[in-house]
Design a protein that fits this description.
32% strand; 8-stranded mixed sheet; binds coenzyme A; 20 strands; 7-stranded mixed sheet; alpha+beta; Aminopeptidase; Nonspecific Lipid-transfer Protein, Chain A; 381 residues
């Protein structure tokens, strides 16, 4: 029996695996010229397809830095072929392939975090799902001009999105074709904006039913007047609904300033897992604002090339990563991936003994480069 994982462009073949897993065994109806993924792989036993996964290429933020990240999606093994090592072979192939292709990171939404942890992924960051009873919705002041745009006007909110994205970690800097996935041109989604230029926007799929929950698909802001003016607009949209719900990153202004009993704040869903694929390359890509240095060792059972120990020296001019003889910090690739993304931050990991700190000076030095950051991604894949 030979098990191989290889690129696959034949959608019909891939759907043989995806259909029983993701579509109730119904034929998958995505038009062949509009696949949701960029690159797909098939696992084959003696040439027969038994498993598949795909990826969405992303460029994600980490303060001022941009990192290449493979968003892994559609991981599936035929139901009768599971638990015999096919999933493992696919996941190991994936991290190797994307590391060789120059990606610094891989990320995914897990069905079970425990499964992906085996391959070096760990949960970093969280989002709040906020749901507010319209009877108790706070009053927000509308101080900015408002507009209602259609799907064809989506370019008008891209600057606002990018400013929001660059203040956080893990946000996908979407190219045009990925904006097409967020707001398809032929969709009836509405985009509400406040400010000229746009200081906040919300993408809304209207539900005409009265007294139901109105969900906001995407809520993004760059200023406080923008945030509050947009909530004023949304309170009008929710006037004949029971609740309004939306998602905010963990730096949530709603939690910070507007929280009141009766609202629901749910941080328990939509966790993204992250994996640094290439430690020295990822560190060298960062764009620090301050200067410092530290030594670090990263234990990674899949890539000994990541281990080091590394001597890392950084300043606003750049980051240098070279081999060192010993390390002041030692951590597993999963905790390194968290510290690298910024949530939980390096100091939180140290506080809880989740990383080994042999030198406080190295911890302090590393915290200047790997500063704590809200980690958030608004894209589903
Ligand atoms: C998840 C899935 C791809 C795993 O593939 P698989 O071929 O069954 O997995 P493997 O046999 O290679 O298992 C690899 C390892 O993961 C472990 N594992 C498998 N499923 C697991 C689970 N649900 N939770 C935790 N560990 C799991 C196995 O025990 C094995 O561990 P070991 O190496 O220590 O023995 C497959 O079960 C599947 O298609 N599930 C349904 C679709 C799905 O949920 N996809 C994920 C979407 S994010």
């Amino acid at each position: 029996m030979s098990l191989r994982v290889e690129p696959c462009t034949d959608l019909e073949e891939l759907f043989k695996v995806w259909s029983p897993t993701y579509r109730d065994n119904a034929p998958v109806t995505i038009e062949p010229d509009k696949p949701r993924h960029d690159e797909a792989f098939a696992a084959r036993i003696d040439g027969r397809i038994v498993g598949a996964f795909a990826s969405l290429p992303m460029v994600v933020t980490r303060e001022k830095a941009e990192l290449r990240c493979a968003g892994i999606a559609g991981v599936a093994v035929l139901p009768h072929e599971r638990q015999h090592g096919v999933g493992k072979a696919m996941m190991e192939h994936g991290i190797r392939h994307y590391r060789e292709a120059g990606y610094e990171l891989a990320s995914l939404y897990a069905f079970s975090e425990k499964f992906y942890r085996k391959f070096g992924y760990e949960v970093a960051g969280y989002k709040y799902g906020i749901k507010v009873d319209m009877g108790r919705f706070p009053r927000f002041e509308l101080t900015l001009p408002t507009a209602k745009l259609g799907a064809a006007d989506r370019d008008q909110v891209r600057d606002c999105y990018e400013t929001f994205a660059r203040r956080r970690s893990g946000m996908n800097l979407r190219p045009q074709n990925q904006w097409d996935r967020i707001i398809q041109l032929d969709s009836n989604k509405a985009i509400y904006t406040v400010g000229e230029p746009v200081e906040a926007y919300a993408i809304v799929t209207h539900d005409w039913n009265f007294w139901v929950e109105q969900k906001v698909d995407e809520f993004v802001w760059t200023t406080q007047p923008g945030y509050e003016s947009l909530l004023s607009v949304l309170s009008g949209i929710g006037i004949n609904k029971t609740h309004l719900s939306w998602v905010e990153p963990s730096d949530s202004p709603y939690r910070a300033k507007h929280w009141d009993r009766g609202a629901e704040l749910n941080a328990g869903s939509g966790f993204l897992m992250w994996r640094v694929l290439n430690v020295p390359k990822a560190l060298s890509t960062l764009k620090p604002q301050t200067s410092g240095s530290f030594t670090i060792e990263v234990v990674d059972e899949h890539f000994t090339e990541n281990q080091g120990p590394w001597w890392v020296e950084y300043s606003p001019e750049g980051v240098s990563v070279v081999p060192a003889s010993k390390a002041g910090l030692v951590m597993d690739i999963r905790q390194f991936s968290q510290a690298f993304m910024g949530q939980p931050g390096l100091m939180d990991l140290a506080l809880n003994g989740l990383i080994e700190v042999r030198s406080d000076a190295d911890l302090l030095g590393a915290s200047g480069l790997l500063s704590a950051q809200p980690v958030c991604c608004l894209d589903a894949f």
